[in-house]
Amino acid sequence: MKKLFSLFVLLMVAVGGYAQSDDFGVYSTLSVEKKIDKKASVGVEAEMRTRENLSTFDRWSIGVDGSYKLTKWLKASAGYTLLYDNNEKTTYKTKTLNDVETKVPNKYVKYWGIRHRFNVSLTGNVDLGDFNVSLRERWQYTYRPSKTVAERYDYDDEEMDGKEKTYNGKGKNVLRSRLQVEYSKKSFPLKPFASVELHNSWPVEKVRFIVGADWKVTKQSTIGLNYRYDRLYDDSDDRKPNIHVLHATYKYKF
Questions:
Q1: Which residue in 39, 60, 77, 95 has the most C-beta neighbors within 10 A?
Q2: Dihedral angle of Cα 172, 177, 181, 185, to the nearest 10 degrees
């Protein structure tokens, strides 16, 4: 266990030095799962996220889901999540500086808003000795309702502009493909795992790497700790930085 923890810390330090411009956050998740029968279960999950090196709350969320075991190796699931996000938006304009056209910030706003997220998944898995290998394919649709902000910061005037601005509602489809390997042995109290996940909205917009472990404290309770690195591929003006995350989880099954 000590060796596993040491490896976990070393990995965090190594990947943490990948780029000075990367962000860091802490996520915490609380979930409850109710088993209906041998094949079906339902659950509720709440989550809190931070960003900007722990200085800002990124989002709060609560979701419900259900799953059904189609065969020994294949499971289907579906869910809905209500997201409450801390958003930042910057608009840009083109200026000519020394005969060179350059994009410079025009207006900026920060506000909280709601998103609705739906997902449907298929997960296949196979046991290879003490290891379990799984592949999850998840279709995810997120809808952001229109939002009106009272005013925005104007970089030219260096003050708030005092004008309302409405951002139209929009939806987004993403295919999330996750490959995961988990080590499980009755004599070993921890369940270490590692995964890589592609978020594809044509083209790929994010690759997520996770390594961590779950510890079954009691028959019903499991706590977990994992390290996550999100590598973003986004050339939009509102591109967020890559982020390193320390994620703590607690799950109760009954």
A1: 77
A2: 60
**Which residues sit opposite 80 in a β-bridge?**
64, 118
Burial state string for 123-141 with b = 16 or more CB within 10 A and e = fewer than 16: beeeeeeeebebebebebe
Question: What is the mean pLDDT, run by run of 10 residues, along the chain of 254 residues?
Answer: 54 54 96 96 98 96 98 97 96 84 92 98 96 97 97 95 96 98 89 97 95 94 97 79 96 96
- Quote the pLDDT of residue 20: 63
pLDDT digits (tens, 9 = 90+) for 84-101: 999 999 999 988 877 788
Contact 129, 120 (CB under 8 A): no
- The answer to whether 239 touches 19, Cβ cutoff 8 Å, is no
Long-range contacts of 75-80 (CB under 8 A, 24+ apart): 75/122, 75/123, 75/124, 75/125, 76/120, 76/121, 76/122, 76/123, 77/119, 77/120, 77/121, 77/123, 78/118, 78/119, 78/120, 78/121, 79/118, 79/119, 80/116, 80/117, 80/118, 80/119
**pTM, 2 dp:** 0.88
